Amino acid sequence: MIDTIMMISTRGRYALRVMLDLAQQEPDQYIPLKDIATRQGISEKYLESIIRALSQNGDLRGIRGKGGGYQLTRSPEEYSIGHILRLTEGSLAPVSCLEDGMSGCERSDCCLTLPVWKKLDTMIQDYLDSVSLADLLNQQD
């Protein structure tokens, strides 16, 4: 088993961009996929797979046809960045032995670095879960 530090893929980064884009729109309006793709510079085909993952989990609502599109199902304050990234990335664990469903590795009983990875994992999860879409929209530079 190879341990690697987690990196967020384009899928995860694009999912955040899509959710932020929708959070900036009028909450009662459905936003066409084409409009989101154009504003975000993401191909519609790639965006469809991201939207599907977010819709299947109930984070987006969509309707087809004229006047159709997508909208958030909750307010931006109710979406954590951690939640969105876990939907699109799966695990956010910094090393593979801490990924969900893993029972550790054969060295976990004697691994001197495991406490570091566990603490880092907790810090990553706690931080990403503490930041909402609204926080990102309201940040001031």
* Total number of distinct structural domains: 1
* Continuous helix count: 6
The CATH architecture term is Orthogonal Bundle
Q: Compute the gyration radius: what is it?
A: 18 Å
What portion of the residues fall into strands of 2 or more residues? 5-15%
CATH topology: Arc Repressor Mutant, subunit A
Low-confidence stretches: none
Describe what you observe in this structure.
With 141 residues, the chain is mainly alpha-helical. It has one domain: Arc Repressor Mutant, subunit A (Orthogonal Bundle). Helix content is 48%, strand content 6%. The protein has six helices and two strands. The protein has a two-stranded antiparallel ribbon. Helix 1 crosses helix 3 and helix 1 packs across helix 4. It starts with 9 loop residues before the first helix and ends with a helix. The relative contact order is 0.18.
Give a quick precis of the structure.
This protein has 141 residues and is mostly helical. It has six helices and two strands, in the order H-H-H-E-E-H-H-H.
What's the layout of helices and strands?
Blueprint: H1 10-23, H2 33-40, H3 44-56, E1 60-63, E2 69-72, H4 81-89, H5 114-130, H6 133-138
Antiparallel strand pairs: 1-2
Helix pairs in contact: 1-2, 1-3, 1-4
Provide key terms for this protein:
two-stranded antiparallel ribbon, Arc Repressor Mutant, subunit A, 48% helix, mainly alpha, 2 strands, elongated, 141 residues
